[in-house]
Each structure stands twice: as structure tokens, then as C-alpha cells.
């Protein structure tokens, strides 16, 4: 069995990214390992998700990585993100994966949001 256990995004906009992802319901803690850079981390059901600063000499973050998150209430989440000025790329709609929308995080990564199915 294999399980994804770590995702790290790197950015020059750490505080904006924390605000964006916190709006999805994620709670971060500030961390620093030894002499490494200060960063933010959280645990999501066995997955560590971290927001690191860009490495020195790097000016642009990777915007080709696409992430997806399940949220409790898609419309409420989109409204809170809109208040932050977040761009919606794909309006909410019913899909084969559920009620979903796509937004851009502060660096421009496309983030898919899917409403949690009621069981």
C-alpha cells in the first residue's frame, strides 16, 4: 500500500497563502527545523501540507501544480474566498465527482474544491 504523506508548496507570499488555505478550513502552525526557513505546516488526515518560502534565487513559484480539497460547504467557502479577492476559474457545478469549483490561490495555482458528500 502506498499513501501520499507530504505536499509542499513554495511561495513568496506565505501570509497570503496561509490566509487562502485557512479559509478552506485548514489550521497551520509555524515551524522551523534547525537553521531551515520558517514555514507553515498542518496535518490533513495523515498528509502533511506545508507552505515554504521560495528558495533563494527563485523569483516565480510553480503554478502548474493543481491541488484539490474537499470542503464542508462549497458555496460558503467560495463566498469567503471572494471576499479575499480570489479568482474563480470554474463556477460551481455538479460533476461526476460531486459539486465542485476551481479557484486560483494567491500564486495562481488552480485549486479544485469539492463539497463533502452527505453520507
Automatic annotation (TrEMBL):
SUPFAM superfamilies: Glyoxalase/Bleomycin resistance protein/Dihydroxybiphenyl dioxygenase. The keyword Manganese does not apply. InterPro entries: Glyas_Bleomycin-R_OHBP_Dase (IPR029068), Glyas_Fos-R_dOase_dom (IPR004360), VOC_core (IPR037523). GO terms for molecular function: dioxygenase activity. It holds the Pfam family Glyoxalase. It comes from the Bacteria. Keywords: Dioxygenase, Oxidoreductase. The keyword Oxidoreductase applies. Residues 3-116 form the VOC domain. Coiled coil: none annotated. This is Glyoxalase/bleomycin resistance/extradiol dioxygenase family protein. It comes from Chitinophaga pinensis.
Amino acid at each position: 500500500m502506498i499513501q501520499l504523506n507530504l505536499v509542499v508548496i513554495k511561495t513568496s507570499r506565505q501570509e497570503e497563502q496561509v490566509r487562502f488555505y485557512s479559509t478552506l478550513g485548514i489550521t497551520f502552525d509555524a515551524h522551523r527545523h534547525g537553521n531551515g526557513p520558517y514555514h507553515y505546516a498542518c496535518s490533513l488526515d495523515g498528509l502533511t501540507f506545508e507552505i515554504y518560502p521560495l528558495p533563494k534565487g527563485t523569483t516565480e513559484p510553480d503554478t502548474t501544480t493543481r491541488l484539490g480539497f474537499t470542503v464542508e460547504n462549497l458555496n460558503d467557502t467560495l463566498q469567503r474566498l471572494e471576499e479575499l479577492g480570489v479568482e474563480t476559474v470554474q463556477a460551481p457545478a455538479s460533476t461526476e465527482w460531486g459539486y465542485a469549483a476551481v479557484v486560483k490561490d494567491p500564486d495562481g495555482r488552480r485549486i479544485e474544491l469539492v463539497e463533502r458528500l452527505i453520507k
